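Internal tracking record. Fields below are filled automatically when a chain is submitted to the structure queue. Please do not edit lines marked as system-generated. If the sequence contains nonstandard residues, flag them in the REMARKS field before resubmitting.
Queue: standard
Priority: normal
Entity type: single polypeptide chain
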Amino acid sequence: MSKQELVMLGQDGVEGCYPTLLTAPLYEDQAETLAKVFKALGDPIRLRLLSMIASRAGGEVCVCDLTPAFEVSQPTISHHLKQLKQAGLIGSERRGTWVYYRLLPQMTDLLSAILTRPGGQHLTETTAAEAAS
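SYSTEM-GENERATED OUTPUT FOLLOWS
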């Protein structure tokens, strides 16, 4: 796996450069960048971690509160958190011994915008049946 950090989307006007999947094809560099984000979300532990962080009252959670929820070691949790951070999905802040994590909503907002159908397009019964199967 590459050790390069993912360029943050939504900075320097990048967010406006991404079309929805139904309005225009993605350019190669856009697809590569988004694939890294989706890859980060493709692991069940990382998806659960992101959900736990995003849904936490107050908007942030200590790593000490995340680790007990999983049957994996603390270094494994730290690895998964690093992957989410490199994908631009979460941010962190060290306070003494502990690290606190928070959702970076600009990335989830961008993913939502890319995956959303343009206004006025409705899901047909055929498409809905195909999606359910």
